[in-house]
Amino acid sequence: MNKIVVNGGNKLVGEVEIGGSKNAALPILFAGILTGEVCIFSSLPRVSDVLLTLEILRALGARIRFVEGGDVVVDYATVRPAIPPIALTGAIRGSVYLLGAMLGRFGRACLGGVGGCDFGSRPIDQHLLGFAAMGAAEDADNGTLCLTAAKGLCAADIVLKMPSVGATANLLMAATAAEGKTVIRNAAAEPHVAALCDFLTAAGAKIAGQGTDVLTVFGKKPLHGCRFAIIPDMIEAGTYLAAAMATGGRVTVKNVVPTHLDAPLALLREMGATVTVGKTYVTLRAPAHYRALTVETGPYPAFPTDLHPQLAALFTIGRRATGTGRVVERVWRERFRYTEELAKMGAEVKIDGECAEFLPSRLLPATVRSPDLRGGIALLIAALSIKGRCEITNAATVGRGYEHLETKLRGIGADVRVLG
Ligand code: EPU
């Protein structure tokens, strides 16, 4: 996926089937290591971050089979306590989950590097402090971060400085192997963290408080293989709803958990959209013109940072937006790289620290470069609103998180081609 070519201006109308959540799939695939047995996953999204995760697991010795009907069978019995190639782990953020999973299974974990979208610094101090509290000592082996729990992991009472998704997931995994009761306070409550709890529970773990900010793990229960369905991707769903807004269209996203989208739906309604919520679907009918608002991102259930760029793109579309839009980015202060590219399309943006202001602008066709996953999809949303041809380069960044993008967009009337 090198380039996306968009001839925008079409109203998007129709239905989109939402796939499994990338940010749930990654920790769950790594958590399977803890079982040492066979796990069968359904609704695993075929996005590059997930495919790379499977490559990492294969490099560690796991046997992986794609079966007819879409399930993926992973046999973790043959996973070895090895260091996977940095070329693989360095390409995705999710590889950080190897720390909790390998520590839990083998008492030692080593990781050469982690990748992911570049939002400036992405520290893992909260992960490391939590592991240390559970008795894991840190050493560096030729630039490789290693953790060892020489006497086994012990239970701990951990208070996170911020509700980090990654730290919560990593510590949950390690805690399943720690003797006694581990409590993680100020834990992330994102649906994908709750899904990890569900997976671990299905594998035999005992966890209380799932979906809240206090998680309690009663460790050392024997884990076993299981079947697990990955939850729908709320960010993918929100993205298609934003695309409907951008084009004055009407789109139904199917196979969603509507409550996961409470904050984005409230905002889209406030902007003027008509939103209908069913048990597993959401329909959005866009108004001809919508109000730009102020939105502040935050940990779940607040407005998700991973929908910030898509929303900001809506604020810049002069044909549809009225008023000044503002985004206050509380999670990734430097998640504004996409605005330089939006500016190439004519968007007027002012950035001041973690706040950005967007004026409804006359957007024009342009060639722009995707800076990261959500920034790239925001550029695509802007392009869908522009009459004329736009090109988005460095599109592999978008392929990290959007499955069957071309097919899904064409299915609702977009003139889009994904090249390479
Ligand atoms: N933080 C620390 N120290 C830590 C951990 C986090 O200071 O030890 C800070 C971060 O710098 C950031 C905030 O805490 O300011 C939240 O970070 P978090 O750990 O929650 O993020 P993450 O686990 O690295 C995941 C998703 C991101 C998503 C964030 C927030 C995956 C693979 N990544 O990242 O997804 O933005 O949670 O919800 O699950 C995306 O899908 O586009 C994406 C970037």
Name the descriptors.
420 residues; alpha/beta; UDP-n-acetylglucosamine1-carboxyvinyl-transferase, Chain; 2 domains; 4-stranded mixed β-sheet; globular; binds uridine-diphosphate-2(N-acetylglucosaminyl) butyric acid
What does this structure look like?
The chain is α/β, with parallel strands linked by helices and 420 residues long. It has helices at 22-31, 48-59, 86-89, 97-106, 125-133, 165-175, 191-202, 234-247, 262-271, 308-316, 338-344, 373-385, 396-399, 405-411; strands spanning 3-8, 13-17, 38-42, 63-66, 72-75, 108-111, 137-141, 144-148, 157-159, 181-185, 206-208, 214-218, 227-229, 250-254, 274-277, 281-285, 290-291, 294-296, 321-322, 325-328, 348-352, 355-359, 367-369, 388-393, 415-419. The strands form 7 sheets. The chain has a 4-stranded mixed β-sheet with strand order 23-24-1-25, with helices on one face. It is globular. The structure holds uridine-diphosphate-2(N-acetylglucosaminyl) butyric acid. Uridine-diphosphate-2(N-acetylglucosaminyl) butyric acid binds next to helix 1, helix 5, helix 6 and helix 12.
Topology overview:
Blueprint: E1 3-8, E2 13-17, H1 22-31, E3 38-42, H2 48-59, E4 63-66, E5 72-75, H3 86-89, H4 97-106, E6 108-111, H5 125-133, E7 137-141, E8 144-148, E9 157-159, H6 165-175, E10 181-185, H7 191-202, E11 206-208, E12 214-218, E13 227-229, H8 234-247, E14 250-254, H9 262-271, E15 274-277, E16 281-285, E17 290-291, E18 294-296, H10 308-316, E19 321-322, E20 325-328, H11 338-344, E21 348-352, E22 355-359, E23 367-369, H12 373-385, E24 388-393, H13 396-399, H14 405-411, E25 415-419
Parallel strand pairs: 2-14, 3-13, 9-10, 17-19, 18-20, 23-24
Antiparallel strand pairs: 1-24, 1-25, 3-5, 4-5, 6-8, 7-8, 10-12, 11-12, 14-16, 15-16, 20-22, 21-22
Helix pairs in contact: 1-2, 1-4, 1-7, 4-6, 5-6, 6-7, 8-10, 8-12, 10-12, 11-12
Bound molecules: uridine-diphosphate-2(N-acetylglucosaminyl) butyric acid (EPU).
